[in-house]
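Just scan my protein:

——
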Amino acid sequence: MNAKQVHKFVERYLEATGCAVLERSPVHFKVKLSPAADRALTNRPYYWGFVDRTGAEPETMSFVFVTDPAKYEEIEAASARPPLPPGSDAIQAGVHSALNRTFGHVSASAIGARMPRENLFYGSGRMNQLFDAVHQNGKFVYLFQQPDTKAAHPFD
């Protein structure tokens, strides 16, 4: 599977499970998982046991699923803010500097919520979890390779 096929598969999975897509591009998804997808993908049996026993409202996890890491890094680098010039806003610069010393580089969007990043490609662990979840909950899965039509023999 190439990056476009992985992207389309992940998109179809997120739509089928009812996940809330917060942001999407041709190379990534920022998503808040539905309870069904959270149960299948996050391996939190104690949390879900607590939710089932108490009847509490579940708080599902959020993820950044990246299907093409090289292009995603280019986009992130282009949209990154330049450091604040000295003397522009001393308080904000001090807070930003303290966070950088403590946690390394922290972007302003990451301060509010934790969103783990998962690089999805054919053979990755998270992709295998997606395949297993689809296999367990779906009726069928077709995975096949289309041979290159330009070659004289498809296996050359």
In short: The beta strands are 20-25, 28-32, 62-66, 117-119. The chain is about 45% helix and 10% strand. Residues 3-17 form the longest helix (15 residues).
